[in-house]
Design brief:
The protein has helices at residues 25-33, 37-40, 51-58, 77-87, 102-108, 123-147, 189-202, 233-245, 260-295, 303-310, 314-325, 329-347, 352-358, 364-375, 379-387; strands at residues 5-7, 14-21, 42-48, 65-69, 92-97, 113-118, 175-183, 208-215, 218-225, 249-257. By secondary structure, the protein is an alpha/beta fold. The protein folds into three domains: 5-140, Response regulator (Rossmann fold, 3-Layer(aba) Sandwich), CATH 3.40.50.2300; 147-268, Alpha-Beta Plaits, CATH 3.30.70; 331-387, Arc Repressor Mutant, subunit A. Helix 4 runs parallel beside helix 5 and helix 6 (123-147) packs parallel to helix 7 (189-202). The longest helix has 36 residues, at 260-295.
Length: 388
């Protein structure tokens, strides 16, 4: 992702440029005017009421991101995201939509749609969502720095199977070390990436490195240099990372390659296993999250609680869960509670209050309203109908 950033004079803060597309003028105009975007690290450079107008703007101007509604009359958000992806693949897409359009949102994932915001949103919610988006874009910036020396083109976040390329760096006379970095604590991956990059930039000036991918909290790291790398470099590296992060880490599966050919051969034989392992690991995280949720429905569950249980960051789990399950965690939890409540109404003689407690909805009026919204009936009416 190539980022179009604006350096502010005050403090050198990076500003990410974006446009908003929504056929509802009140939303398009209000979205731009009601929030002080500069305070969040963004610059809203335009709001448009149709996808065609947005495209006309993009043909003459660079942006980092497009925030678009899905349902629009002349050109849908899906069609717009497809066009943007085909013509400006580096531009990230954020969908604004209603709950019942999740299937369309899933379709948009193939067109660089990275976030899905459910309408309506309060200003507080918008700020929280954009803080997460800002964090994601900051990580993309770090990745771009990695890409300047990365030999494994297009390979990041566990997406294995791409061919190694030497187009971006001259690898003649280079030696390579490939290893797995395990973090023995829960940490936001974005902060870890920044720390790793800083350590190599400041301490190991003669050594190049890139992160090839991650599985959960483990990272596969490659370092390479034309100069001889000391045998005890791992101890120095671990000490440096521990000092910067203030946490315990370990390095495993260190492999040395004397030339680029040996490294290429390794990936030719290992790439299938790496890809399958990554997919299984991602599924394992989602499976663990689902099991934890279903076994603790009576508890006050939250994204933070589930992420802590799975030993991953909230932002990473949120994106991973939505990608694999087709809905966000809060929606999934609510539906599971509703399903459990309906089952208890039919199978048991528990009171509505007891069932509400059992499924984690301790506010009885809220329980009634949620069940009414899902079934169109009160608990008593639902029980009577299903027991006939």
């Amino acid at each position: 992702m190539t980022l179009c950033r604006k350096e502010q004079d005050i403090g050198g803060i990076i500003m990410y440029k974006f446009i908003l597309v929504d056929d509802e003028r009140a939303i398009a105009d209000g979205f731009r005017e009601l929030i002080k975007w500069e305070e969040l690290g963004f610059e809203c450079v335009g709001s448009f009421y149709s996808g065609k107008d947005a495209i006309s703007f993009l043909e003459k101007n660079q942006v980092d991101m497009v925030v678009t509604d899905i349902s629009m009359p002349d050109m849908s958000g899906i069609e717009l995201s497809r066009y943007i992806y085909e013509n400006w693949s580096s531009v990230m897409i954020v969908f604004l939509s209603a709950f019942n359009e999740i299937d369309y949102a899933k379709e948009g994932m193939r067109y660089n749609v990275r976030f899905y915001l459910n309408k309506p949103l309060t200003i507080k919610q918008l700020k929280q969502e954009f803080a997460e988006i800002r964090e994601y874009l900051d990580v993309e910036k770090v990745k771009n720095n990695f890409a300047e020396t990365s030999i494994y083109k297009g390979y990041f976040n566990g997406l294995a199977g791409k061919c190694i390329s030497s187009e971006m760096y001259d690898f003649d006379d280079c030696s390579f070390f490939l290893f797995e970095l395990n973090i023995c604590d829960t940490i936001a991956s974005e902060k870890l990436l920044r720390a790793l990059y800083s350590i190599f930039s400041l301490i190991y000036k003669k050594v190049k490195f890139c992160i090839l991918g991650n599985i959960g909290v483990a990272y596969e790291v490659l370092i390479f240099s034309r100069e001889e790398i000391a045998e005890n470099w791992t101890e120095e590296y671990i000490a440096s990372v521990k000092d910067c992060l203030g946490m315990d880490i370990e390095i495993k599966n260190v492999r040395q390659f004397d030339n680029i050919g040996m490294l290429e051969e390794y990936y030719k034989t290992e790439k299938v296993a790496v890809s399958e392992g990554t997919f299984k690991a991602e599924n394992a995280v989602v499976t663990n999250a689902v099991n934890f949720i279903e076994n603790n429905l009576s508890e006050p569950l939250s994204l933070e609680m589930v992420a802590k249980e799975c030993f991953v960051s909230t932002s990473w789990l949120s994106r991973l869960f939505k990608w694999h399950m087709g809905e966000n965690i809060s929606t999934y939890i609510l539906q599971k509670r509703i399903d459990m409540a309906k089952d208890l109404l039919v199978r048991t003689d528990m009171t509505a209050h007891e069932i509400a407690e059992r499924v984690g909805m301790r506010n009885l009026p809220y329980f009634y309203s949620i069940l009414k919204k899902d079934t169109g009936m009160t608990p008593k009416e639902y029980r009577m109908k299903k027991r006939r």
